[in-house]
Amino acid sequence: MITSEVRDGSLEVTAMVPGVSESGGTCTLTLEESQRSVSVSGNEGKEVTYCGLMSIPVPDGEDAAFTVSYTSANLRAQSSITTIETAP
Fold first, then answer.
1. Angle 54-58-27 (CA atoms, 0-180°, nearest 5)?
2. pTM of the predicted protein model
3. Architecture of domain 2-84
């Protein structure tokens, strides 16, 4: 489950990994076109792992396609490609 918005020239994304509750994994936001990425640590919740705010600059006026992945000792998961419009 992913929430995303473009704010002040940056794509801001948070995510949750349902059905997995653990700390110590890594959440990574990757822009598809440039393959630039940013990572944060996952945090354990009740039957979910939370990926906190990940923020990465995006060009104005272009659609930003991205994926979010989660990797830990026990699991590897990746979202489908999501596209969000940026304001010109």
1. 20
2. 0.91
3. Sandwich (2.60)
Residue whose tokens read 């979010």? 68
Decide if 29 contacts 11 (C-beta within 8 A).
yes
Assess contact for 71 and 30: CB atoms under 8 A: no
**Residue 51: what residue type?**
C
Which residue in 12, 6, 13, 3 sits closest to 60, CA to CA? Answer: 6
Distance of alpha carbon 52 from alpha carbon 31, whole angstroms: 17
Chain segment 8-56, per-residue pLDDT in tens: 889 999 999 999 899 989 999 999 988 999 999 999 999 999 999 999 9
The Cα–Cα gap between 26 and 70 comes to: 6
Q: Where are the domains of the chain?
A: 2-84
Nearest Cα neighbor of 82 from 17, 61, 72, 69 is 69
Are 82 and 49 within 8 A, CB to CB? no
